[in-house]
Amino acid sequence: MKKQQLAARLARRGRLSQSAAADQLDRVIHDILKGLRKGEAVPLPGLGTFLPGKRPGFRFESRSPRKSPKSASR
């Protein structure tokens, strides 16, 4: 997905103008790059973490399996 497409989707879902959504997206990208340049890992809650280094990467958060509720003992 291209940046313009993502901004358009954010605008629709967030009920924003497309230019406001594009500005917010630019801000997020800038903050991610700023953290990576400082050598910091940059988390995206619920999704994963951008990792700095010679070979930057992205690590997805593992989702722990949901525990089934224990049945009440009689």
Number of strands: 3
* Low confidence ranges: none
The overall number of domains is 1
What's the CATH class label? Few Secondary Structures
> The biggest beta sheet, please?
3 strands, antiparallel
Biggest sheet, strands in spatial order? Answer: 1-2-3
> In terms of quaternary structure, what is this?
single chain
Going by CATH, the architecture would be: Irregular
Give the gist of this structure.
The chain has 74 residues and is α+β, with helices and mostly antiparallel strands. It has helices at 3-14, 18-37, and strands spanning 42-44, 48-51, 57-60. The protein has one domain: HU Protein, Chain A (Irregular).
Question: Any chance you could write out the topology, listing elements then pairs?
Answer:
Blueprint: H1 3-14, H2 18-37, E1 42-44, E2 48-51, E3 57-60
Antiparallel strand pairs: 1-2, 2-3
Question: Can you offer a commentary on this structure?
Answer:
Helix content is 43%, strand content 15%. By secondary structure, it is an alpha+beta fold. It has one domain (3-60): Irregular (HU Protein, Chain A). The chain has a three-stranded antiparallel β-sheet. A hairpin with a 3-residue loop joins strand 1 and strand 2. The chain is elongated, with a radius of gyration of 18 Å.
List keywords for this structure.
43% helix; 2 helices; alpha+beta; 74 residues; HU Protein, Chain A; three-stranded antiparallel beta sheet
